Amino acid sequence: LPSDNEVAEWQMQFRSSTLVNPSRHAVWRASGVDSVDLMSRYDALIALARNKDKKIAVAVLKEAMQDKSFFIRRTALDLLSDLDLRNDEDWKPILIELASGDADNKVRAAAIAYLGNLDAKEYGTTFEIATEDKSYIVATAALIALNKTAHNRARVKAEELLDTNRFSDLWETAAGMVFAVDNKPEDYGFYQDRVKNFYEGARSRFLVS
Description:
The protein is mostly helical and 209 residues long. It has helices at residues 4-16, 38-49, 54-64, 70-79, 91-101, 105-117, 124-130, 136-149, 151-160, 169-181, 188-208. It is built from eleven helices and no strands.
């Protein structure tokens, strides 16, 4: 296993994208170049996050989730799926901050989706608030996450926001998943409208093509 000094060195390389020893990770596109460009950080992140030593992966992902680039932050969240963080309390504040306050809607959505996959009921309030986010991507991710942790609350929000978010196919698909858990007679109208809108959309695309 690498020493603590090597881990610290690699973290520093990630911060600055200055590759002191480019032969160590041939995958780094910017080998030998003293650069702070986006793809250098991206390649360094991929190489380090997939290291077999979890200590290295955890260290670099925590830094990447605070990177100035939303692309790097989103990539770090995608790479979290390789780690089991259910018993790691240190991650919670970082993920909650990204889920509720990141400037990029796709970062917020990715953080919410990851928290939802942890099946932790303690995040229910965070998800419930996020279902009313102005971004359909975030609102959809929050509704799906809330449905995983507190279905009854998710159904209430889906019914409450049905008219508000009816212009988003993505959100309506998530709402359909919520209603499908415990189909009720009053849900029939929702599915009927979904089918009608689906074929109407297909007809409109045919007419303008």
